Fold this sequence. Notes:
The structure holds two protein chains of two kinds.
Chain A: E1 5-6, E2 23-27, H1 54-66, E3 71-75, H2 85-95, E4 98-103, H3 110-119, E5 123-128, H4 133-140, H5 145-157, E6 162-168, H6 176-185, E7 190-195, H7 200-204, H8 206-209, H9 213-230, E8 235-239, E9 259-262, E10 268-269, H10 291-297, H11 299-302, H12 320-323, H13 328-335, H14 351-360, H15 379-389
Parallel strand pairs in A: 2-3, 2-9, 3-4, 4-5, 5-6, 6-7, 7-8
Antiparallel strand pairs in A: 9-10
Helix pairs in contact in A: 1-2, 2-3, 6-9
Chain B: E1 13-14, E2 20-24, E3 29-34, E4 37-41, H1 43-50, H2 58-69, H3 75-87, E5 92-93
Antiparallel strand pairs in B: 1-5, 2-3, 3-4
Helix pairs in contact in B: 2-3
Amino acid sequence: MSADGSVSTNSAVKPNGVGHPLWLLAEITYKCPLHCVFCYNPIDYATYGKELSTDEWLKVLKDARAIGAAQLGFSGGEPLMRDDLEIMVAEAHKMGYYINLITSGVGLSEKRIAALKEAGLDHIQLSFQDSTKEMNDFLSSTKTFELKNRVAKLIKQYDYPMVFNCVIHRLNVDHVGKILEMAETMGAEYVELANTQYYAWAHYNREHLLPSREQLVRAEAVTDEFRKKVGDKMRIFFVAPDFYETRPKKCMNGWGNLFIVITADGVVLPCHEARMLPGITFPNVRDGGDVKSIWYDSDAFNKYRGDGWMKEPCRTCPEKEKDLGGCRCQAFMLSGDATNADPVCDKSPHHQIVLDAVAKAQGPEKKVLAIKPLTFREDKNSRLITETEGSAAYRE
Amino acid sequence: MSDKPALTLEQTPKIPKLFRLQWEEAQQAHVLLYPEGMVKLNGPAGEILKRVDGQKNIADIAKDLEQTFNEPDLKKDVLAFLEIAHERGWVRFN
């Protein structure tokens, strides 16, 4: 008998080679009390149709569980904006999901956290914007810092493991040491220092947000030091921005490979951002198709599966299996064509776009870089940008 | 690889509360679920972790497996896997 744990999550494949949608992200609402400048929600979210009802969600959860979804994330917007969250958590728990709540903490009263615990919620990821009250409140355009501190205490009080998430960018990357100290004080078990990925609102505001190389090097050094200090009790993930790489990320571990997103209005996507891609109609669970047929059979989910869609330089690249050509959305945003190589790759003929963005981000941290003002994610801006710029808002 | 001391048969593993072990029908495998992640376990790994309850020590777990699978001596295999599991944080020892 040989015993080993396989960390591969995609070895359980159907005969046609398509794996299970192991990770289901339910973006149950786009309502949000925060207005973060780096939000990955679509820019045009305020123009979307009606949210799925409780019953519609319960059916979706059941269908996805039947084809192997095991991790469930309730996200948004702010998922606590829905007052039926407790019902959905309770039902999802009965179905056998491991349930993650991805929240800003706004709306998480003691009454609600007690009810969510009772319903079977497994874990809460609390997001912060910075270690200082001023920056936190400014970046999210709210006054929420003290509230988040209270919520962090509640999370520990209700005996939850806590993932502390802080989106990192030019305006807060120099505070990484303080952010880590705060996470430690709050008793976080996992800390994600996730550099902003430049999609949607973050892309729109990129000139304000992309850190300099010097800032990144400093922040990683501080993080390494902190890791040594705290040892096992806190696991710290530092995710560098891919603009500083020469090879792209294997986005979502591949299109339609293990990740599935269902949006507030019922659209089924292979990632958070794919809705921006032109020429693809993503199915809506309201139009009769169940999650299973959408995952396995829809044109949208099969469009970029595997490597049959690739053009040069990806098609003959010896590393194509490693990153699957990177991110389709980034390829579209930066080069105008989703079938191009992700321009992060230095083999891409469009790599110069990334180099130019990086070059612009060098220099003193306080240098004023941007021409456009910093734009907050809010309904008014969503409608205005959609009306005046349309899909061009997603493009370079 | 690890700077942790080698395990002994008298030690009692337990699964930290961050993790949940469960059988997944679709994957026909045991998995360990944890915040935003999942580890798919192969057959033997699943059988070992299934027996980790915070009560049985490593020797007890090996004995249980030997009886269940009618194998002469599994102590070395169980120790080897639990070393890996410990390294990855899937089990803890008090």
